[in-house]
Design a protein that fits this description.
The protein has one domain (28-185). 38% of the residues lie in helices and 19% in strands. The protein has helices spanning 2-18, 59-73, 98-118, 136-139, 172-185, and strands at 38-41, 46-52, 82-88, 124-131, 152-158, 165-166.
Amino acid sequence: MLKILSEVMANKKTQAKKTNLPPILPKPPSLVEEHDSLYWLEGTQSLQITIAYNEDKTQEETAAYMATMIDRVGEYGPWAVKIDLLIHPRIIRRWESLSIYTQHVSEMMALVEKINNSFTNLTHINVRLEIDFSNFQQIKLAACFLAFKAHWSLSYYIEDNPILFEISTQGYLMRRLRGVYHRDCKS
């Protein structure tokens, strides 16, 4: 009896290995649960992401909000061809804890990793920073985006001024961002 039972179990194991199940299809963007920071443009297959660190939220609220947003971003991965990323970096005051900046860098690196791992058809990422005034302290959060695998561009504009400033890949600001990336973003 025991021998028959073991033969049946062995037969079931080989049957389970032989079945070819169809691959699981990704959830279409229209079925992804909405998030305040994410906006899907069906016609252009692009995802708009807005991150506002300048809102009055505690570090804990910001961390929870960003974790949820980063989790949802991955669901658009199989569909998006382009990402438009708008970031409102916060000015970290000298008397504030360095942990605020460290948390923002950690969240941006998690977003970059999620995009690199989830977006298979991505052709371009357009990153824009809205800053309060011409201040490298706000721009340096963009150093995290040097880890993008897809082609990307970086620009910034000063609040209440419609002029967009491109940051060249060979320019002075990009060289400074590379230094920040190696110091703050690389593990």
